[in-house]
Amino acid sequence: TGRRQEPALRRRAGRRSGVGLLCLVGLLGWVETARADLFDRWYGAFGVGWSYADRLELEADDAFMELDRGTDQLMGAIGRRVGDDWRVELDYTQFDRSPEILYSTSAALEIDTDEGDSVESSSLMVNVVRDLRVGQAWRPYLGVGVGRGKLDVAFAELPIDGPFFQRPRRQIIDDSGSGLAMQVMAGLTVPLTRRLELAADFRYWHMPDVDLEDVSGRAADTDHTVRSAWLHLRYNGAGAGVFDAPAPRRSVEQGWYVTGHLGGGFAQDEDIEDQLLVIDAFDLGTVATVAAGYHLRPRWRAELEASYWENSVDVMEFSKDIGEDAASGSAESLSLMLNVIYQFAPGSTVRPFIGLGGGWVRSSYDIDTRGFCRNFTCDPVEQRARLVDDHGIATAAQAMVGVDVAVNERLSFSASYRQLITGTTDMDRPDGTPFNTERRYITSVVAGFRYSLGR
Asked: Whose CB has fewer CB within 10 Å in the chain, the N or C terminal residue?
């Protein structure tokens, strides 16, 4: 009887083992599915960009601090897709820039800066982003964010070690404040591979009511606004990408085309030849371009481009014993350039390109200085003096890198990063003194559309 029961027991044990194995396989499958569902809709992003910050209006002595541009800004973000067209992400951003001058009429202060002074801000933001389904190979997006911001300000009076006058370095403000920060953004995404996406956007970041104090304990409260342009590389989980499939192919463009761009740009500090003068702290300005071109070959095209740049001037730097002065006015340029552009992947919907251009620039300067301090003595009565009001023509060259994204068979969205350099522009100051300058490294980011007239 025992021998007859053994096969039955083995069969029942085998069935229990099979059921257990099926349960284990099912559990592992459920865990794997849950893990896939948990991580596949996530993405990570890394961004680089440049920024412009408004002057800091400080409550103490009705003072303000002019700031130079910020370059090589960094950003990191993680996010998750929610539904088909929404994303929620957490990003950390840090902005670094150099102060140029601390100016106060009521306190008779005009203090220059050095490398020991800094204005730094950072934020940790939660963003809600909406992707718009427009076109096959590009997706515009809009977003808003809220989070925590921090502002650190360090500014000191420079030391003087002269034969007749000595003064130690004296700290004016060295404080930090944190609080609520908000931002809005607008940008677009283009596909690179099944997992990689390239995105570019513009952001307006604002931190109101920052509580600061100077070294004497007086309130130096302010608010802080930063405008920034970014280029992001985004790596997606299986279900996190904006696009459902890689970008499709398209016909190679031929013949004539027209294009137009609009954007913003900075001008680097300009040295005035044979004089102890430097035009400093340009504001973010407007850049506009229009062009007509022709496709020479599938990868090559040439175009004639007219452009306009405008930047306000905030600071003029004089000799060491005078230092810097607050200024007002503008530097404007009109250019006519012949560009030669090499286009990668001419049959793709997403087409990166590089280009070089040369031509002429007509620059016009209209700058007033306040003439507030001389030889370390500040006049309580603010004075203004016309520094230059003239124009001149110079040769110029530019380099560009960008990307075209097809909207339909004839229309393409186009965005590019540009650097422009000019030769010497000869002008005169009101008293007849020569005023010769070179516009070096005008940095701009522009975006617009190109319409193909050919087949």
From this structure: N
